[in-house]
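Appendix B, Record 12. Input sequence as logged:
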Amino acid sequence: MLNMYTKYSVMWTFNLMVLILNIEIVISRNDPKNDPRSNGDLALWIDEKQVKMFSGMSMEIYAIVNGNVLPYILDPNFEKYLPVIPSEVSYVNFTWKAGNKKYYYHFDRLQSYDESILEAPVISIKTKGRVPRRPKEFSIFLPCLGNSSGIAKFGIGLLIESRKGKPLNGTPLRLKLKKECAQRNPDPECDKKCANQGRCNHEKICQCPEGYMGPYCRTALCYPQCMNGGNCTSPGICSCPPGFQGRHCEGGICGEKCLNGGKCIQKDTCECSKGYYGPHCEYSRCIIPCLNGGKCKAVNKCRCPRGFRGDHCEIGRAKPARSNCQLACKHGTCVDDACSCDPGWYGRLCHHMIM
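Logged structural output:
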């Protein structure tokens, strides 16, 4: 007689075989030559290790290929084909990449419909952000409470938009899935190995609180990841190596300030704005200074404000101040609703020349 986990594995295998057939047909029809993982558009898939954990089959399962949500995901009966996620599986790994285009995502629904058994799903990345250009993995954690056994329902919603804010066809995705949870018996000895308030489940596997992962919940999660060799010491907090600073260790520390709009990118190293150079961006590539508010953009070339032109913005004339006089002053400027005449002119409108 099959136990519950074996029963679910058989169901996963059968249903995956059906899905795999459909996916292969769709992918080959869309682009038979390119691997969705390496072509130039959006893709989302479940990694090979995760599928093998569920079914014993080594392959990826795709949800989005070439910037298109696959038809089987949009099938109204899709959720009926999916079996219950076994209690032994506490997370699902996904991999995605945007390729050559810019896409932005929003997980607008992470909800448990049986909160007495299962907490709301937790993702290992921010709920809103930009889809990474190159393949990158993220996880959805399914934290059972462990106080009772049963089948819990949960929902996940994902909206993906283009750079112009246009939703990807087929999104927002709205999935309702099922997760088996098992009652957890107290096990103080097992709990001791779980750090950061993690707890052992009935399979003696640590279930980690939000912000931690790993076999013993010792790995903190920082997203974006710590840069320049920084270490994630607690959720969202990076410890930076000497010479770097910032929430994600993205900025450098320079002994002397970077000038003229330059940025410190690593220890004592400035990244200069266009038109400047030097260890601290102290030198201008424009030997003759830019005039009238212009900015140096290249060797002796200035970017001029509106109304001026020339290599050094020397040609042009500033717009006169707006006149409050009923009639324009001919040879003067309007001051306190009256014309103030230029030298050599007089009259209410400065229109008479002094002879």
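The longest helix spans residues 4-30.
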